[in-house]
Amino acid sequence: MADTVATNPDGHAHPGQDPNRRDFIHIAAAAAAVGGVAAVAWPLIDQMNPAGDTLALASIEFDLSKVQLGQQVVVKWRGKPVFVRYRTPKEIAEAVHDDHADLRDPQTDAQRTKPGKSQWLILVGVCTHLGCVPNFGQGDYGGWFCPCHGSVYDTSGRIRKGPAPKNLAVPDYAFLSDTKVKIG
Hints:
CATH class of the largest domain: Mainly Beta
Radius of gyration: 32 Å
Number of domains: 2
Number of strands: 12
CATH topology of the largest domain: Rieske Iron-sulfur Protein
Family: Belongs to the Rieske iron-sulfur protein family.
Distance between the termini: 65 Å
Largest sheet: 4 strands, antiparallel
EC number: 7.1.1.8
CATH superfamily of the largest domain: Rieske [2Fe-2S] iron-sulphur domain
Function: Component of the ubiquinol-cytochrome c reductase complex (complex III or cytochrome b-c1 complex), which is a respiratory chain that generates an electrochemical potential coupled to ATP synthesis.
Region (Disordered): 1-20
CATH architecture of the largest domain: 3-layer Sandwich
Number of helices: 4
Strand order of the largest sheet: 7-8-9-10
Keywords: 2Fe-2S, Cell membrane, Disulfide bond, Electron transport, Iron, Iron-sulfur, Membrane, Metal-binding, Translocase, Transmembrane, Transmembrane helix, Transport
Order of helices and strands: EEHHEEEHHEEEEEEE
């Protein structure tokens, strides 16, 4: 194929300087192809995002004024039970005292609570062994006892005995005010 050659007023030819119909068609076809690929790819990429109902469950707010000293409330978050416990000074003292005990999954009580709010313990209420829901107040350490396989947790939710490999999980949470917490 021959290149199109343009001539200047002086009569000399300069190859490749004349945009013609063929160049326009190539540019338009490339732009249409890019638009077509984007139109096909966007729904495929967008369907990988979480659904609206899942995003709605991503976080919950809970009113802490409903919980009395020494009481535990169970709320549901992402389909799992979450323990919101208003700990007594005795429970906090026991948890702090056990910070240096021989723990399978070492964490201090301060690492499991928010600074200045150590009376509030918020845990995912699922045993880390096989996923059962532990009961409060039945363990040897004043914390939780898993009835399925006998895992025992202390008043900070740390594993002390039994087959569970890890402490009860602490979800992401933030205090919105003195009486409101946002979990997730």
